[in-house]
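User: Can you help me understand a structure? I only have the sequence.
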Amino acid sequence: MLVDSHCHLDFDDFDVDRAGILARAHAAGVQEMLIAAVVEAHWPRVQALTAEYPGVWAAAGVHPNEPAAETPEWEHLLAALAIDKVVAVGETGLDYFRSEGDLSWQRERFARHIAASKATGKPLIVHTRAAAADTIAMLRSEEAAAVGGVIHCFTENWGFAKAAMDMGFYISFSGIVTFKKSVELQSVAKKMPADRLLVETDAPYLAPVPQRGKRNEPAFVAHVAAFLGALRGETLEDIAERTTANFHALFKHAVAI
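Assistant: Let's start by predicting it. Here is the structure, written out as tokens:
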């Protein structure tokens, strides 16, 4: 069994064939998946999908690239996190690549999400791009280690991975690790301790080889797991067993209701 630890099945990209996507995922051995919200307006849609489909979990948060006005009210965030199948806080973090100017509001939003994680005991799903130093600094200063979480769609170096793991974070690899030019990322994946490893699609983005260029979907996480197994000298079954166990070790609220 595999778990897609990060996807966006609530996106309009999947409206035409969402049931088929779930069926293909199950056929590929992907029995569970976590939908990470990116905007508050989609929280009800994400929660509805978790209610409709067994094995589908949710996170509540607002992506760092959403405008400053989209930062969720504290009470709204806590209310969303009180729902049983909402098992994590996010997608949150820092992204200096797509946002410009004074980004103090982005750091304030990240701090609010970290505080919500600590208040609820639900771990963080962290996005970071072109903001590595500030991401680690904020995780430290806001004491995110009290709850931990995952650095999703990991693209940083070993130093970043080690710093995050030292705070109790897991590292999740997406289809990017299968790309031919991802040499440094592959070296990080080979070094990773097995008990901190997760796999994801980030669907509909970043389809792995051999599906690159297509709309990504949870079934394709099997390609990521197979690639990691070959890279690390392990079987697909080894990677599947370990990453599924890691998912449930991190997201302790992801239990059958």
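Now, to help you interpret it: The longest strand covers residues 86-95. Residues 2-250 form a domain with the TIM Barrel fold (CATH 3.20.20.140). Let me know which part you'd like to focus on.
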